[in-house]
TrEMBL record:
Catalytic activity annotation: 17beta-estradiol + NAD(+) = estrone + NADH + H(+); a 3beta-hydroxysteroid + NADP(+) = a 3-oxosteroid + NADPH + H(+); 17beta-estradiol + NADP(+) = estrone + NADPH + H(+)
Descriptive protein name: Dehydrogenase/reductase SDR family member 11
Keyword DNA-binding: no
Catalytic activity, EC: 1.1.1.270, 1.1.1.62
Lineage: Eukaryota, Metazoa, Chordata, Craniata, Vertebrata
MF annotations from Gene Ontology: 17-beta-hydroxysteroid dehydrogenase (NADP+) activity; 3-beta-hydroxysteroid 3-dehydrogenase (NADP+) activity; estradiol 17-beta-dehydrogenase [NAD(P)+] activity
Membrane-spanning ranges: none
Single biological process term from Gene Ontology: steroid biosynthetic process
Family designation: Belongs to the short-chain dehydrogenases/reductases (SDR) family.
Region annotated Disordered, chain positions: 1-48
Biological role: Catalyzes the conversion of the 17-keto group of estrone, 4- and 5-androstenes and 5-alpha-androstanes into their 17-beta-hydroxyl metabolites and the conversion of the 3-keto group of 3-, 3,17- and 3,20- diketosteroids into their 3-hydroxyl metabolites. Exhibits reductive 3-beta-hydroxysteroid dehydrogenase activity toward 5-beta-androstanes, 5-beta-pregnanes, 4-pregnenes and bile acids. May also reduce endogenous and exogenous alpha-dicarbonyl compounds and xenobiotic alicyclic ketones.
Amino acid sequence: MWQIAEERRVEQGAEAGHSGGRSWRTSDAGRSTAGAAGVTRERPGPYDLGRSSAIPVLCSQSEVGGRLGTLAKAGMERWRDRLALVTGASGGIGAAVARALVQQGLKVVGCARTVGNIEELAAECKSAGYPGTLIPYRCDLSNEEDILSMFSAVRSQHSGVDICINNAGLARPDTLLSGSTRGWKEMFNVNVLALSICTREAYQSMRERKVDDGHIININSMCGHLVPPPAEIHFYSATKYAVTALTEGLRQELREAQSHIRATCISPGVVETQFAFKVHDKDPERAAATYEHMKCLKPEDVAEAVIYVLSTPPHVQIGDIQMRPTEQVT
Ligand SMILES: NC(=O)c1ccc[n+]([C@@H]2O[C@H](COP(=O)([O-])OP(=O)(O)OC[C@H]3O[C@@H](n4cnc5c(N)ncnc54)[C@H](OP(=O)(O)O)[C@@H]3O)[C@@H](O)[C@H]2O)c1
């Protein structure tokens, strides 16, 4: 697995956030589509991160419109006008998923701390004429009170949650031998605890309204199935192993409760988002290099997997979708 230098570099990119330390290139990686109607925006340079990022915050409308607009519509009909909660909808995978669901006619509550990004996405969805709506909600998922207030606002204003997409997550570069407890707690609080609280509250919301066909989808990672060599990702990997166990545990509890609510996780490899820039917030060049090793997955690829999972007939429960960039080694 570690024979040649080139392969080693790619190995280190097993999850966004881990690069072989190559420098920023300005070839086609210097441009990306983002924002309304697939408008092409210049990608800012690696030192522009304070302002924005080197990766689009929102997803490409034209890409998702073209691919998801025609795919899986039949199976998605039953979800029209129903309510999906998407955590971490302010960028990356969560924004792509929120947009895709609005395109399929759902009412989507998108939450994150940076609510301005979700408001922008909501305006784009509206001006694009998508049949659903995106409702932005500011929530710090590391704070249980915030999560509970969000669920009670959803209950009072929109009845309740039919689909819960636990997407919010982060990695901090805190190794097991010398990392900070603070970094570990940040990861644990969002990746494991918030996901579990949202799952419990979403289930209770479905149960009290006698919703028996709901769906809980956890955005896991390939790091939830194998421990990649870079030390900085070991604790993160442990949180994603927890997501693997939590998804299967949830499936079993739902069976015991004789519920038809479904539990699924989606486990991507490297996806080109802000993720690596948050991991390596002090080393943007290293972060940018993460996405240069190979043609990475796009947030829209993961959104398509979510739509596929939701569009299967109610008797079909997808347990996990493992998806990597074709060129990814680990
Ligand atoms: N990118 C990858 O290569 C990759 C691969 C496999 C799995 N994943 C998983 O995919 C999910 C999404 O990641 P991404 O790549 O889209 O990363 P991203 O672009 O960094 O987005 C992360 C999202 O999580 C939200 N979030 C983080 N902490 C939060 C908090 N305390 N409260 C509320 N929201 C919070 C962020 O919103 P605010 O900061 O605005 O609050 C943001 O919307 C994560 O679970 C990640 O582990 C990513």
